[in-house]
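User: Please run a holo structure prediction.
Assistant: Happy to. Please share the sequence and the ligand.
User: Here you go; the ligand is magnesium ion.
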Amino acid sequence: MTITIEEPIFKATNVGCRFGGVIALDSVDFEVGQHEIVGLIGPNGSGKTTLLNVLSGIYKPTGGEIEIDGKPSRFKSSRRLSRDEGLARTFQNIRLCPSLTVRDNVMIGMHNTFHWYDALWTAKGGRENAADAQVAEILEFVGIADKRDEIATDLAYGDQRRVEIARALATTPRLLLLDEPAAGMNPREARVLVDLIKRIHEERKISIVVIEHNMNVVMTTASRVMVLDAGLCIAHGDPKSVSADPQVLEAYLGKRFRDV
Ligand SMILES: Nc1ncnc2c1ncn2[C@@H]1O[C@H](COP(=O)(O)OP(=O)(O)O)[C@@H](O)[C@H]1O
Ligand SMILES: [Mg+2]
């Protein structure tokens, strides 16, 4: 189950995370390399979101180490991880600003890349105009350019998820963490999402970690899949071998297929 990634961007070693008596993560090792898509699967409550929260600085791990480009980063804030280390994410429960348009929600991501001196330039409209063009390009890229002036939270669920992805892309990340991006999508929207994930990876050269219950999304995008169960990694490898692993079938896939 040990897989060595050459020069990982992010490397978590023996990471643990407890909430009182609940062990959400129990000594998990997780790496993301340059330019790869990693799938993260497992039953509800197995620790997938907690791992993303630890990687993105929202939760402090209660044990273990996290390195970015080989340097310790365990206590970096989520803002610094986004601005300085190029980490962006979306949320399992969509977190868009209500009453703001699609364009303005995406612009919020862009502001994360602004510096104090941009305020001077912005006074002349320069930085803001450039940012507007970048937002337009990103909305086109994710396929919601026509929804630019609509209130983001009024959109259909699948489109709101794409606004979240657009906002994450606006921070110009090198690693994008997607927490159940296909949740609430119909099969056609999920196929469009698969295409979008592949294009983000191929055209924008961004590494991606994707948590999904939709096995088609995971197995057709990820080159490597890790399976969590009760805070432990129970399998790790290429999609084909992971989906045939007896322990994975017992803990997750088999149960899921029996439930359907
Ligand atoms: N902020 C929190 N406070 C208390 N318990 C939490 C918190 N976040 C997660 N947990 C618990 O940690 C476990 C893993 O949750 P989570 O990472 O959300 O699982 P998954 O994303 O795989 O469904 C669950 O038992 C959950 O209730
Ligand atoms: Mg979750």
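Residues 48-49, 92 surround magnesium ion (ligand 2) (CB under 6 Å).
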